[in-house]
Design goal:
Shape: globular
Order of helices and strands: HEEEHEEEEEE
Mean pLDDT: 83
Number of helices: 2
Radius of gyration: 14 Å
Number of strands: 9
Length: 140
């Protein structure tokens, strides 16, 4: 049975002013809360987002672990809780991203070139919110 997005994420909406970036991510966020650097795939270096295309957001989400299919099957399909994301409001803001098939009412974001991922998350109930986990991408 498919889980609703409300079951997979907190019910409270994200705060309207941009949250303060954590010390490790402070050099990535401008005063307006947008990304200062380009966002790249960690594996192949493909450009996912241009500078200024996303807003920093803090939200606790569970993403499947980034493993090869054989390793994921052996490990039982665990995941990682990620808290810092780039929030993209328009899917056409992406330079290079792919979407998985629906998993319930969620699509996971992957690199369109090498299919590494998931690097992010999109709930089909909210057409205007695409989350890219900071810890799953590189920046330049």
């Amino acid at each position: 049975m498919a889980a609703a997005c409300a079951e997979m994420e907190p019910a409270a909406p994200p705060p309207s002013p941009p949250p303060a970036a954590a010390p490790g991510s402070a050099e990535l966020v401008c005063a307006q809360g947008r990304n200062l650097k380009a966002v790249l795939c960690q594996r192949c270096g493909s450009r996912v987002l241009l500078p200024g295309a996303a807003t920093f957001a803090r939200r606790e989400l569970l993403l499947p672990a980034m493993r090869k299919k054989a390793a994921a099957a052996a490990a039982g399909g665990g995941g990682d809780v990620v808290r810092e994301h780039w929030l993209v409001r328009d899917m056409f803001s992406f330079e290079n991203v792919g979407f998985t098939r629906d998993v319930g009412n969620v699509k996971f974001l992957v690199c369109a070139d090498c299919e590494a991922g998931p690097i992010g998350w999109h709930c089909l109930d909210d057409k205007d919110s695409f989350y890219v986990a900071l810890e799953r991408v590189a920046h330049e």
